[in-house]
Each structure stands twice: as C-alpha cells, then as structure tokens.
Amino acid sequence: MRKWNVVLLLLLLPALAILAQPLGAQAEAKKRYIRSVEKYTAPDVVLVNQDGKKVRLAEILAADQPVMLDFIYGTCTTICPVLSAGYANLQRRR
After folding, report:
1. Could you tell me if 55 and 49 are in contact, meaning their C-beta atoms sit under 8 angstroms apart?
2. Cα 39 to Cα 79: distance, rounded to the nearest angstrom
3. What is the pLDDT of residues 25-46, one digit of tens each?
4. Counting CB atoms within 10 angstroms of each CB, which of 11, 34, 49, 91 has the fewest?
5. How many Å separate Cα 44 from the centre of its chain?
6. What is the DSSP letter of 84?
7. 30-35 — which CB contacts under 8 Å span 24+ positions?
8. Strand 46-48 relative to strand 54-56: parallel, antiparallel, unpaired?
C-alpha cells in the first residue's frame, strides 16, 4: 500500500466509525443534553451607584433600561482593576 493511501485510511477511520454507529445510538447521544431555563428572583438589596448614591436593586431592575452590575473587591489585585477600568470607560461613553 502506498504511503498516501495509509494516511488517507487513517484520516477516514474516525469518520467511518461514526457513520457505522446505529442511528439510535446517535439519537440517544443527543438526548443526554437537555437545555433548561431557570428564573431567579434577585434580593432587593441597597447598592451604591457610580455617583455614590444609594439605590435599591428592585427599582433598577424594574426600569425599562439595560442594567449592568459588577461586584469589585477592594483587596482584589488581579482582574478587579481591569474590570473597573472597563466599566469606567463604558460609563464615560454613555
């Protein structure tokens, strides 16, 4: 057998193995993944907005505007400063 024939055979073997499976096995494999949608109620906590004003979370979520929340820890030295800079940039754009 020529070298390229061996290479071609090795490349096609996985595809042939998948195609050789019974259709029922493929359908059964798809059933293992089920999409679910959950709904959670956020607690009505008091937050501090970008202007230092205290606001209730329920009031913010009831408004007909997009809401972005981020919780930054003052002692975080890794990703928190990067996230804070990104949100500050977003705030300047509005």
Report:
1. yes
2. 28
3. 556 666 677 888 888 888 889 9
4. 34
5. 25
6. H
7. none
8. antiparallel
